[in-house]
Amino acid sequence: MQGDCTGKYSLVVQGGGQKGAFAAGVLDTFIAAEYDPFSLYLGTSAGALNVSSFVTKQPGLGLDFILNYTTNNRFFDFNRLVNKKQVAMDLDWAFQFVHSGEFPLDIKRGAINLGQEKQALACVTHVEEMKDYYYPIFSEHWYDVLRATCAIPMLYHQEIEIDGAKWVDGGVTATIPVHEAYRRGACNMVVITTEPIIEAKTTQSQALSAEPLEKLKLELARGIEPYINRFSPLAKNDRMKQLSDVFLTRVSQLKQQHQFPTLDSLPKNWLPDMDKLSEMLIHHSQRLNLKAHTPRSMEMLFSHYLNHSSIAEFMNQPPEGVNIWEISPSRPLNSSGLMSHKDDIFGDYEIGVLAGKDFLSNRQDL
Which end of the chain is less enclosed by CB atoms within 10 A, N or C? Predict the structure, then answer.
């Protein structure tokens, strides 16, 4: 798995949609302090956007995109999807501003800042292989790469085609690309997450019961119920049960086909972002015949959550010689993946600023 371990430092940034405001605050603090010991930058989804603005040294760009564009109904409108059966997410509209808006990403400056020795990569998921790949952000394909890493399956209308292959949200296969940093020989990692992964494993771990699938069904039902009530008032418990059954059927099939970790070894919070799962499942309930078999979609959903479990295990028990400094919120973020209020987003950004300052004031090993 690992390349030659080097002394280089990597910056790894989780996505999370509008929760990315936290990472934007951390990285803007790094820019202000001129702190950048990294030679490898890795980001998934919104994390890739934050990595981009950090490499170009454009403070405020990440927050501007999240605060002013992802909150616009043109970018995401669930009622448009549910009531009119249209595409919910318009990445093309939003990314035109990254390209040529009032505050565009300075691609040329980013490439200059990287030079020949550094790399900035965005995680994307190969649709057919269901595997994570990493494309250079500051390249001729930068626009498609950034769209692809943010293209949430079933919410965005199409996969992004690059080099003859189709790609979707990197979060499907690598929510926090620490494994890739390790593969590339970066044994010193600063990892920005939307919740404390390391602390969650050690302080909240809980063995699942002898009936793990029933436990999972309960967690799943609790997670999607608010969305069903909000966007489809006529939907009752039978719809929720149907959604859960479809997902769990696919879980059972995948367990038979692949060697996955046993469910009783997973941490309690192995479903880290119920908002994202909820949005995807509600989309299924409106657009698809749930009695039909949809293996690709279900596999993407399951992969998204299972890979997060593997990442949590890696971060809590890193290989020998690997140092991980996690920067996470001191309390749960106010914003969610989508449909957050601007005040909540800005509040999470300020939490990130404080977390960045705290990290800089206490760092001793970096």
Answer: N
